[in-house]
């Protein structure tokens, strides 16, 4: 593993002392962002490396949309492609979802599908995702000098237990579709937009379809918390008969040599109520933190082609950028 990146944090790009602490740490390489257009120049100017993750053009990416690639034909899309090429990381990853062509972006809840766009065929969804990720990889790397080419990765989503929707925090666009959204969750469950795409067998079939295709092989971003949450939910719902550790080991048997990046943080929740993707830091003496740390080290040990890690940790809202920088260094040292 070559580089450790961190997530963007409010005030970090304007706090030169915090940036210097990171640069002098000898362990933090740079910052990973979704919004390249907004943050690329500031990160590069700071002297830190820049990495892209699920990079936005206009709105969130959906590899289940057969027309997804068309967004990169726009001037903004072409700009994002060029920015990706000029990032420092050798990889760029996209979330592997959804099982609907159109979804509503929810806050603190799984995204909701537009019911008329749900896939009814697993094989059709598999084909669309393959076509999209291979098409993007060609757009990015074809006619691009080798030193600017990036390995394109797929990241699994988090399959969560059922819980109430907090409508107060939802956007206006979501609220006006409240009736439709409640109906689709009532009929298809909390993970209505994640049918198939979180299953181990889906990744087995997906990577068989992608084998020996692409200018560079399509890889896997192993998000530790996403897989942990999915395993917990599937065990709770009796969709998987083993333990969480068994689930990790089974997935690693399929994609271990395809893991080029990992995302690390601690989820929020408990065994009784389930977990959400809280992007929390590791804390000493916390049982869940220690379990996630052990799982992360297992993934690292069984991923011979691993290139980068991102500490996808949000930090406290009241935290000063210098405090955040020091926290990230301490977190990174857990894996030194």
Notes on the structure:
This is Xylose isomerase-like TIM barrel domain-containing protein. With 336 residues, this protein is an alpha/beta fold. The chain has one domain: TIM Barrel. The protein is 38% helix and 16% strand. The chain has 11 helices and 12 strands. It has helices at 16-23, 36-46, 75-85, 122-141, 172-175, 178-188, 200-210, 224-236, 244-255, 287-301, 321-332, and strands spanning 3-7, 30-33, 49-52, 91-95, 103-104, 112-113, 151-155, 219-223, 259-264, 266-270, 274-280, 308-311. The chain has an 8-stranded parallel β-sheet with strand order 3-2-1-12-9-8-7-4. The chain has a two-stranded antiparallel ribbon with strand order 5-6. Helix 7 runs parallel beside helix 9 (244-255). The longest helix has 20 residues, at 122-141. It is globular and about 55 Å long. The protein starts with a strand and ends with a helix. The model has no long low-confidence stretch (mean pLDDT 96).
Topology:
Blueprint: E1 3-7, H1 16-23, E2 30-33, H2 36-46, E3 49-52, H3 75-85, E4 91-95, E5 103-104, E6 112-113, H4 122-141, E7 151-155, H5 172-175, H6 178-188, H7 200-210, E8 219-223, H8 224-236, H9 244-255, E9 259-264, E10 266-270, E11 274-280, H10 287-301, E12 308-311, H11 321-332
Parallel strand pairs: 1-2, 1-12, 2-3, 4-7, 7-8, 8-9, 9-12
Antiparallel strand pairs: 5-6, 10-11
Helix pairs in contact: 1-11, 4-7, 7-9
């Amino acid at each position: 593993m070559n580089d450790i990146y961190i997530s963007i944090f409010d005030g970090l790009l304007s706090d030169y002392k915090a940036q210097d602490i990171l640069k002098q740490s000898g362990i933090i390489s740079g910052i990973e962002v979704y919004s390249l257009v907004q943050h690329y120049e500031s990160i590069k100017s700071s002297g830190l490396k820049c990495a892209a993750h699920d990079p936005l053009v206009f709105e969130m990416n959906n590899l289940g949309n057969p027309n997804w690639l068309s967004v990169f034909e726009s001037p903004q899309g072409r700009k994002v492609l060029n920015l990706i090429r000029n990032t420092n990381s050798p990889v760029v990853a996209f979330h592997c979802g959804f099982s609907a062509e159109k979804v509503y972006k929810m806050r603190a809840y799984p995204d909701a599908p537009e019911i008329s766009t749900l896939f009814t065929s697993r094989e059709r969804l598999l084909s669309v995702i393959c076509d999209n990720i291979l098409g993007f990889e060609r757009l990015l790397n074809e006619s691009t000098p080798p030193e600017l080419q990036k390995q394109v990765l797929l990241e699994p989503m988090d399959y969560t237990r059922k819980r109430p929707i907090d409508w107060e925090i939802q956007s206006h666009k979501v609220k006006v579709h409240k009736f439709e959204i409640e109906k689709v969750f009532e009929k298809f469950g909390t993970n209505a937009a994640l049918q198939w795409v979180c299953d181990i067998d889906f990744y087995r079939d997906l990577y068989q379809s992608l084998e020996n295709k692409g200018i560079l092989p399509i890889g896997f971003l192993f998000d530790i918390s996403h897989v942990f949450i999915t395993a917990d939910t599937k065990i709770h719902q009796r969709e998987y008969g083993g333990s969480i550790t068994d689930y990790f080991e089974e997935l690693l048997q399929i994609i271990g040599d395809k893991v080029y990046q990992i995302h690390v943080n601690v989820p929020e929740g408990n065994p009784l109520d389930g977990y959400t993707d809280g992007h929390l830091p590791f804390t000493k003496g916390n049982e869940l933190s220690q379990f996630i740390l052990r799982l992360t080290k297992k993934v690292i040990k069984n991923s011979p082609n691993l290139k980068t890690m991102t500490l996808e940790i949000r930090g406290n809202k009241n935290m000063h950028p210098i405090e955040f920088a020091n926290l990230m260094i301490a977190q990174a040292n857990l894996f030194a």
